[in-house]
Amino acid sequence: MYIWVILATFLAMLASYSLAIRPDMRSITVEPVAEAVLGKIIVQHEAAKSYVKYKKFPYSADKKKVEYQVGVVSEDDLKKELPFGFIMNNDYVSQIFCMDPTFSEAYSHNPTNNPCDLITNRRLLITYGPIPPRWMSLSAEMQRPNLDLMNAMRSIVNVGEKFGYMALADAEGIANTEDNPSGSNVRLVDRDGVRVNFVPKAIVNDVTFKSKCDLSSNKICMIYVSNI
User: Fold this and answer.
1) What radius of gyration do the chain's Cα atoms show?
2) Does 15 have pLDDT greater than 70?
3) Backbone dihedral region of 36: left (phi > 0), alpha (psi from -120 to 50 degrees) or beta?
4) Is the dihedral angle over the CA atoms 72, 78, 79, 83 positive or is it negative?
5) Whole-number Å distance between alpha carbons of 96 and 67
6) What is the C-alpha separation between 4 and 157, in angstroms, rounded?
7) 3-state SS of the chain?
8) pLDDT, tens digit (0-9, with 9 covering 90-100), for 20-69
9) Separation CA 228–CA 225 (nearest Å)
10) pLDDT band at 193 (very low <50, low <70, confident <90, very high)
11) CB atoms within 10 A of CB 94
């Protein structure tokens, strides 16, 4: 009897090796991990949006003025808006930009004459940070996220959100003054790669931004942009 138990176990082991791998194996094992990676930048950006929300009317005293300033949103300010227990990733930066109408020039912090108060200026909140090497494609043709990260993006990012990774724009895109008034050479590739979005030249040339995200130095970033 004992020998038959051993033989049955051995045959079961052999059979397990011949079972086909589930076609959705990566979607149930790898992509949830990728979603967790993207979740960190998304949650931080939502916290930054909440910070901005409470710095303007109807929460501010003046309808015509805002209480936020250009620059990086501090860790202390973000922590007040983050979910309880959330651990920030220091790789990501949330930054407020106030720019001229063509998005070509970013204005500096000015507490007495806040550039964000001018209705003609453009105001953007952007959260950005490098893509971990684990989630980069091994393709030699182009630096970009791998398929797992892109699939995760399609799962957790809504259609229409300006969220994606940076890539070089072609000559046609740079000359597209309607969608790219600043003539930026960096486009934002979203979850479907269909919408035409560009990272404004004022942001691309910003010193803080370039320290983390610079295509000329192969620093490829994930970027989340919102109008404020």
Assistant:
1) 23
2) no
3) alpha
4) negative
5) 12
6) 54
7) CHHHHHHHHHHHHHHHHCCCCCCCHHHHHCHHHHHHHHHHHHHHHHHHHHHHHCCCCCCCCCCCCCCCCCEECCHHHHHCCCCCCCCCCCCCEEEEEEECCCCCCECCCCCCCCHHHCCCCEEEEEEEEECCHHHECCCCCCCCECHHHHHHHHHHCCCCCEEEEEEECCHHHHCCCCCCCCCCCEEEECCCCCCCCECCHHHHCCHHHHHHCEHHHCECEEEEEEEC
8) 555 555 555 577 888 888 999 999 999 999 999 999 989 888 888 999 99
9) 10
10) confident
11) 25
- Give pTM, 2 decimals: 0.83
pLDDT at 84 exceeding the cut of 60:
yes
- Parallel, antiparallel, or unpaired for β 162-168 and 122-130? unpaired
pLDDT band at 6 (very low <50, low <70, confident <90, very high): low
Other CB atoms within 10 Å distance of the CB of residue 122 = 21
**The two structure tokens encoding residue 223:** 């970027």
Specify whether the CB–CB gap between 159 and 191 falls below 8 A: yes
Cα-Cα-Cα-Cα dihedral sign, residues 192, 193, 199, 204: positive
Q: What tokens appear for 49 in the block? A: 């949006």
- Distance, in Å, from the CA atom of 203 to the CA atom of 26, rounded to the nearest integer, reads 36
